[in-house]
Write a structure and sequence with these properties.
Layout: E1 4-8, H1 14-23, E2 28-33, H2 45-61, E3 66-69, H3 72-85, E4 90-91, H4 97-103, E5 108-113, H5 115-119, H6 121-130, E6 136-140, H7 143-149, H8 155-166, E7 174-179, H9 188-194, E8 200-203, H10 205-216, E9 226-231, E10 234-236, H11 238-245
Parallel strand pairs: 1-2, 1-3, 2-9, 3-4, 5-6, 5-7, 7-8
Antiparallel strand pairs: 9-10
Helix pairs in contact: 1-10, 2-3, 8-9
The chain binds D-glutamic acid.
């Protein structure tokens, strides 16, 4: 069986790949980080689309069986264009608003994502579809992407940033937050530290791999598994990235 492609603007999609490696350990993976052009969330829709399709062409040319767009921002911008362009299954990601509403009980939901994801129509449409009683708020936490891309994960840097961003928000009204960017699960410990203990932290990673497995079927993969890692088209040793992330 051909490899499964994973795409992200950078290292964020590794939080999704991690889930795939646990659930489908015998599959081969091709991970593409478009790090030369990260972050995507601060760019225009047009610019992101250009970089995204160039990267997707590269992945498709490697003969993959399917691609997981492990990036909420790229999905918001280009999932339709990608599905129109390629015949293989393309699995996208969007902020897990619906599961978060269910997890929040009667309380509100706060969605964290990149600047661009929150600006785009796709996100507004999603909220309109699932948020019948107006319980969803949102906040861009764009700098977390840049912190992660620089492998800066220390409490000393991240906690003051999160405290400052959340300073104006009454957190007691929230039952759940959504990590609507695949770079954000790296900061789960810091989110836990700054949020009240009863706030659920929801991401879309498990749901995405469930979708992938439904599309491909679990039994088609019979080892040995492995990951090839590309940074904007150049192959790089995955173990070096793994070590930096202590994955
Ligand atoms: N990891 C990405 C996401 O899920 C994009 C981050 C960025 O490049 O700004 O939205």
């Amino acid at each position: 069986m051909a490899a499964i492609g994973f795409f992200d603007s950078g290292i964020g999609g590794l939080t999704v790949l991690q889930e795939a490696l646990q659930r489908l350990p015998n599959a081969q993976y091709l991970y593409y980080a478009d790090s030369d052009h990260a972050p995507y969330g601060t760019k225009s829709k047009e610019e992101v689309l250009l970089h995204f399709i160039r990267a997707m062409d590269f992945i498709v040319d490697h003969g993959v069986a399917a691609i997981v767009v492990a990036c909420n921002t790229a999905t918001s911008v280009g999932i339709e264009a990608a599905r129109a362009r390629y015949t293989i299954p393309i699995i996208g990601m969007e902020p897990a608003v619906k599961p978060a509403l269910a997890a929040a009980g009667n309380k509100r939901v706060l969605v964290f994502a990149t600047k661009l994801t929150l600006q785009l129509e796709k996100f507004r449409n999603l909220v309109e579809r699932v948020d019948a009683d107006n319980r969803v708020d949102y906040l861009p936490l764009q700098e977390l992407v840049q912190f992660a891309e620089r492998f800066e994960f220390s409490d000393e840097l991240i906690l003051p940033y999160l405290h400052a961003q959340l300073a104006e928000i009454d957190l007691s009204q929230y039952g759940a937050v959504v990590l609507g960017c695949t770079h954000f699960p790296f900061f789960r410990p810091q989110f836990k530290a700054v949020l009240p203990p009863d706030v659920q932290i929801v991401d879309g990673n498990i749901g995405t791999i469930n979708n992938l497995m439904t599309r491909l079927g679990k039994d088609t993969f019979s080892g040995p598994g492995g990951v090839r890692y590309f940074i904007s088209g150049k192959e790089t040793n995955f173990n070096i990235i793994r070590q930096k992330l202590r994955m």
